[in-house]
Design brief:
- This protein is an alpha/beta fold.
- It has one domain (about 20-305): 3-Layer(aba) Sandwich (Carbamate kinase), CATH 3.40.1160.10.
- It contains 11 helices and 16 strands.
- It has helices at about 1-20, 30, 35-50, 60-70, 85-110, 160-170, 190-200, 230-240, 250-260, 275-280, 295-305; strands spanning about 20-25, 55-60, 80, 80-85, 115-120, 125-130, 135-140, 145, 155-160, 170-175, 180, 185-190, 205-210, 230, 265-270, 290.
- Helix 3 crosses helix 5 (about 85-110), helix 4 (about 60-70) packs across helix 5 and helix 7 (about 190-200) runs parallel beside helix 9.
- The two termini are about 25 Å apart.
- The relative contact order is 0.14.
Length: about 300
């Protein structure tokens, strides 16, 4: 009981700081794959909401889309951690993202008394996108190639009016990573990119990316090599060297854009770990990687030294 009381007292400063703030939480498809893990995330979301923290949840569903594609005889293709979306793959994304996964998250939230509202980026004109043109990029083998991502969109506008209405009435928006262009053409949007666009547009205090790795690793084969905190310059070196690759690359690039877009702190954490959100948010040590601007990093380091 003494440990519990001590922990609650230690979290008091954080609860005062976070009250009334908006957090955007991006949930990876691999997190939703486990009912037990999803239940834990929903419970933590309920606790955060009880502390008057406004939540927006964003999700993709890559593993589930891959499995359904394969069952339908459609060979998945990813380049640099991003999905090439043919018209057939887009149909899969619509079924999986806006259907199966969105409903599963809403059901888990309801179990814990959270009033979730399922949306996609198409709802209420929330996200306007443009079909991505063919791009030249470096793949995970280091080759530079031109890639047509198909029915994939880049975000060009956010109308957060619907989110403001829902958040003001204490609902939790749960947004799948689909959007549309001005002609109503549905497009697949990278969920990390969508989360960043929303976080910067609504002035979120934090962006938290829940994935299946402990955070950013200096050595992808060594979970002990986690980077506790970094700024965009640190990460640029790791991206250039190839230390950050595959599906982690778009996540890191998204977090860097969020920091540069005004989100003070972004976090990449292992959403499968017990109480990962609470540990990251309410303890000084945290459990993942925090990405901040240079000034914020300096202040954080000075605070660490003071604590010691």
């Amino acid at each position: 009981m003494t440990d519990l009381v001590h922990a609650l007292k230690g979290a008091l400063d954080y609860t005062r700081l976070y009250r009334g703030q908006t957090f955007v939480i991006k949930i990876g498809g691999e997190i939703v794959d486990s009912q037990e893990t999803l239940d834990g995330i929903a419970m933590q979301a309920a606790l955060l909401e009880s502390l008057s923290i406004r939540l927006v949840l964003v999700h993709g569903g890559g593993p589930q889309a891959t499995r359904l594609s394969e069952r339908l005889g459609i060979e998945p293709e990813l380049v640099g951690g991003r999905r090439v979306t043919s018209p057939d793959v887009l149909e899969v994304c619509k079924m999986v993202y806006a259907g199966q996964i969105n409903v599963d998250i809403l059901s888990a939230l309801r179990k814990h008394g959270v009033r979730g509202v399922g949306l996609s980026g198409i709802a209420g004109g929330l996200i306007t996108a443009r079909r991505r043109e063919e791009v030249q990029m470096r793949d995970d083998d280091g080759r530079v190639r031109r890639v047509d991502f198909g029915e994939v969109g880049d975000v060009i506008g956010v109308d957060a009016g619907l989110l403001d209405t829902l958040l003001g009435q204490h609902f939790v928006p749960v947004i799948s990573s689909l959007a549309a262009d001005d002609d109503g053409r549905p497009l697949n949007i990278n969920a990390d990119t969508l989360a960043v666009s929303l976080a910067t547009s609504i002035g979120a205090a934090k962006l938290l990316v829940l994935t299946s790795v402990p955070g950013i690793l200096r050595d992808a084969n060594d979970s002990a090599s986690i980077v506790a905190y970094a700024d965009p310059d640190d990460l640029a070196e790791m991206l250039e060297s190839g230390a950050i690759r595959g599906g982690m690359r778009p996540k890191v690039e998204a977090c860097v854009r969020a920091v540069r877009g005004g989100v003070r702190r972004t976090h990449i954490i292992d959403g499968r770990a017990a109480d990962a959100l609470l540990v990251e948010l309410f303890t000084g040590a945290g459990c993942g990687t925090m990405i901040v601007g240079r000034r914020e990093k300096r202040d954080y380091r000075d605070h660490e030294l003071t604590e010691e």
